Amino acid sequence: MKIDRILKHNFWLSEKLADGELYRNKIIELTHESVSKYQNIRILKFLNGSKVLFLDNQLQLASSDEFIYHESLIHVPFVTHQNPETVLIMGGGDGAAAREALLWKTVKKINLVEIDAEVINSCKFHFQEINQGVFDNSRVTIEVNDVREFLKAKDKKFDIIIYDLSDKAFDDNHLINRDFLKKCKNIMNENGIMCLQSGSLPLESNTYFQNFLNLLKSEFNYLKLYPVWVPSYSGFWLFIMLYNEVKKISFEDSINIFQNKISKDLRFLNENTYYGILNTTRFVQNYED
């Protein structure tokens, strides 16, 4: 994709969703473009006013609706845990996941591990309204590293592990394997939760997706899928919670958590939305069996 040619000729950006299916937006500004050791980084502005981050030509974040994605990624597992204090964020170089985690009064320490310093620097400058100073917050420790190296070196325990790395197809994900999951499990507290962003939800089961779920089930006792509609992704985005202890939370408990443990009202989630997301459609429930 030649962004400079697109801008000169008033082109639209098209992202393939499936065979015969495209998602299109008109570009009005190229805000930033660079090539790091790991990927191409582009920050664009669309005609609809949304500022967007593309990594290797894949949409990662849109300012218009990123709150839907990040509130779902962070607050659903946090509320389910009820009292998270220590958090590991894998990826999340745009800072938005850390922003949401910092809203929790219980959170004492966040470790953010991002392999690409250029992503952090680009987003720190161009998405200040989104990351809101998290990179300079005393509760956040930034480590520029491969998460696999981080897992080798660390013996600390976390209440929550957030997997917010760039999405890959289930049949092309070379990071999530049994060894990786075992290492994640080893640094989780007994009542800990790991939450994965898992890409677009397949409406029909397929071998790759089922094998992926079976892999997760082989290392964790409980698995909870919850899809959320994110407009910029033009589909249901799938999140998966993994844990080893039964999690039961009453509606009254969730009300108390949203009122007393989160420092401000959220834009997307409250106690009603939380329960609605977890009581998902039948075909998604079937994946959990």
Taking pLDDT < 50 over at least 5 consecutive residues as the criterion, the unreliable ranges are: 1-6
Q: What is the level-2 CATH architecture name of the largest domain?
A: 3-Layer(aba) Sandwich
- The CATH superfamily label of the largest domain reads Vaccinia Virus protein VP39
Order of adjacent strands in the largest pleated sheet: 8-7-6-9-10-12-11
Whole-angstrom Rg: 19 Å
Terminal Cα span:
42 Å
Note the run of SSEs as H and E. HEEEEEHEHEHHEHEHEHEEHHH
Proportion of residues in extended strands: 25-35%
What is the highest CATH level, the class of the largest domain? Alpha Beta
Number of individual domains: 2
* Count of β-strands: 12
How many H/I helical runs?
11
Organism: Spirobacillus cienkowskii
GO biological process, one term: spermidine biosynthetic process
Family: Belongs to the spermidine/spermine synthase family.
Pfam families: Spermine_synth
Properties at a glance:
289 residues, alpha/beta, Spermidine Synthase, Chain: A, domain 2, Rossmann fold, 7-stranded mixed beta sheet, 5-stranded antiparallel beta sheet, 12 strands, disordered N terminus
Brief synopsis:
The protein is α/β, with parallel strands linked by helices and 289 residues long.
Describe the model:
The protein has 289 residues and is of the alpha/beta class. Strand 3 (40-46) and strand 4 form a beta hairpin. Helix 7 (178-186) packs parallel to helix 8. It contains 11 helices and 12 strands. Residues 1-6 have low confidence and may be disordered. It is globular and about 55 Å long.
